[in-house]
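Self-study notes.
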Amino acid sequence: MKSNLKYVWKATYKDRTEFNQFNEDGTENLFGDIEQDELDEFSFNSSLGHTIKLKLKDDMRLICFRRHSMNFMGQNDKIQYVLGYQKTLDGKNVKTMMFIDDEGNVLLSDGVQ
């Protein structure tokens, strides 16, 4: 699946070790295997040559997913990448997310687009 992804993720832990979406042999690691309690930063690394990085604080929980849209022929048309965090602020659930398209355009939002 790596071949059609414009962004792949990398988790960097507080001890500076890294956990990549794809291993050297091409096998994919699951997002659910990330040790969120030990996470320092999370990044999307682009095949276009740029990186989008999120620095996490102890009170933040990572949000990361991608959306696939299909055209009328049932083919994968576009992928939207979402990177952000959730935290509780004054007793309220607060989310901040970046919506990233295949061209690298970023929309920063406080909710789901």
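Second protein, same conventions, sequence then structure:
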Amino acid sequence: MTAAEVIGAVADRPHLDATAPAGTLRASAVLVAIADGHDGAEVLLTRRSESLNSHRGEISFPGGRVDAGETFEAAALREAHEEVALDPSAVQLGGRLDPISTLVSRSFIVPVVGSVGAQPELRPAQEEVDRIMWVPLVELTRGDTFREEIWPVDDQRRPMFFFELDDETIWGATARMLHQLLRVALGIDGPEPPAL
């Protein structure tokens, strides 16, 4: 699958309302940047710095808080530029995935999907990012990469997704958004399970 095919699948789908539910502490946006690599479409991910106060050392998309008066798209592009020096003009926006809300941090996250023509030269913001990586989507679909656990949360049983790469584990909100991206890219219909 190519980056253009992934972007096309995202662009062709209806979008859910991006209004944060009551009780949300912060509205955020992430950039799901897609580029073609040797094994087809690849997605840009980062490992958050160990010096951060929250989610330290976790794998994530570039992104963060939406500033007052800012669109989700503008926030995603700004944060990607701040975190990995991705030039906003190099990104062709293609649409959004469905927003997710997290129960623990009470964040409302809008995943903004865009493509870059080639993998640009990136630089990590030392205070925020320890590692930048391009992960082939085909690697995320291998049988030995994905696993699901059921966790009890608020008297309910909810699925928690994990992608076990050779040297990193992706879980939490990032894994949920990757799961959704793969479902859209592969044409798998149906709603996503409730988020954690």
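Instructor comment on the second fold: The radius of gyration is 16 Å.
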